UniProtKB/TrEMBL annotation:
Family named by the database record: Belongs to the major facilitator superfamily. Proton-dependent oligopeptide transporter (POT/PTR) (TC 2.A.17) family.
Compartment(s) of residence: Membrane
Name under which the protein is recorded: Major facilitator superfamily (MFS) profile domain-containing protein
Pfam families: PTR2
Organism: Penicillium alfredii
InterPro entries: MFS_trans_sf, POT_fam
Organismal lineage: Eukaryota, Fungi, Dikarya, Ascomycota, Pezizomycotina
Coiled-coil ranges (or none): none
Keyword Membrane part of the UniProt annotation: yes
Alphabetized GO MF terms: dipeptide transmembrane transporter activity
Primary localization: membrane
Membrane topology: Multi-pass membrane protein
Gene Ontology CC, one term: plasma membrane
Amino acid sequence: MSTADRDTEVTQSPNNGVPQEVVLDDKAAIEVDKESLSVTPDGEEPTDTEKKALRHVAENLPISAWLVAAVELSERFTYYGMSGLFQNYVQRPLDGSQGRGALGMGHQGATGLTTFFQFWCYVTPIIGAIVADQYLGKYKTIMAFCVIYLIGLLILVCTSIPTALAHGAGLGGFIVAILIIGLGTGGIKSNVAPLIADQYKRKRMALSTTKKGERVIIDPSLTIQRIYMIFYGCINIGSLSLLATPYMERDVGFWSAFLLCLCMFACGTMVLILGRNFYVVRPPQGSIITDAFKALWIMVRNRNMDAPKPGWQAQHRGVQAHVPWDDHFIDELKRALVACRVFCFYPIYWVVYGQFSSNFVTQAGQMDGHGIPNDLMQNFDPISIIVFIPILETLVYPLLRRMKIPLRPITRIALGFVVASLAMMYAAIVQHLIYSAGPCYEHPGCSASEVDGTAQGNNVHIAIQTPAYVLIGISEIFASVSGLEYAYTKAPPSMKSFVQSMYLLTNAFGSALAEALTPAAYDPAILWMFVGLSGASFLVGIVFWLLFHHLNAQEDDMNALDAEDWMPEAPRDEKQ
């Protein structure tokens, strides 16, 4: 038998402990592998051989995780049901009929204000993260910002009542409301995503035997992936509020839709309060974020990422460093910086994503609606997510794992960018069809389209827009869900909310870029804006893959850092 046909194993000599090479033929190697797959008892960490040979599976979610998901569902119900109406609320004038408009600031004014609201909502998570990680903890912080959110909603409802609009309270009330609501939603958003993953306590792989007798590996990374898939599914079930609020806007008035959102959020806050004894809560870590910035400054000053380590300081400075961290904290911080590098590419994606709640709404209004409110079309985004998440989670991903083709986060994120580019290309095609149809062609809403004094869209059926929303939804499953997962798994345990806020901050930068594109949001220039965003998203996806695909191979090693310092569940009297 040739050397190429043999495996080798290193053993310890019983006499002198010197490693010796033992040659095994193929049959013997197979027997050794079989034996190694059966000796490790259930519940123990698998060997390297078992990790490669056995199927990896995810665990079910604990009840506390479902409670957190329910809170997020109610918050997203409120956010999307409310903000999905903002384009019409700001753009169209108040004409005395229900649901026709409110502030009358036109297309560009509406796009500018709604884009600012999105920007503000994704800057404020930094405030919530600092409060949570350094002072109050996630649960108490969420509760505090829920109160702020409720105040903002109350202002929005009161100033959108027809009497208040008629007396000029609409614009001032709207601006105050979106500032307060943005602060509230930001403080919640940076904490609820890491809080749901905190409910799952396993940090190391473990062996298990299924009811059918199959030996499998419980993989925490797959469970975290499942948690965020379900979490994102709940977000989009909540966003189906847009099935109801556009009709309430049209048939009753904006105030009724905003009131529904206020009531739903109050219910979610009650769930948060009543379930307080079920949650697993990590206490705040004092000056942890301040320490992180101090360590980053030492890295920059010394041009070395290991410079803040006490061991490095002792070796290179000849003195024992008096710092409030150890070497492991710096390793965690370096891992978090890897995640932040990955996040740098997200603003382009968020520019594309933001189109579905702004310019896509206006585009729908330029087509023949056949009785469908233009802002109702947004629902095809969450509907597509709700449909495709179970397909991916129960069919596609398990099939790929059985075929030994793991779809790692970096791959999924890059794929999300590419699918988003397809959505924008399709939107550009739809815009071209609108401009090619009468009666107004490149100037939709002209006087030639008016029926009973109300401008109608061009002769293109509104349903043609549906695939653009579906593609945006699919791209979210790959890019947005994977971003949440990456932010949690790569963050140090004591900085989960802060790193999550860094991920959310990329959405704010995306909104800032979208704000810069507002001058191009007019007919017919907007078609070329869609084309440009399509090309940019595709190119960024390719560059992202080329720069970061090597991180897929390091995924398990980076995730393993958390297993070394996971804190056990807080005792009953420490829970919030």
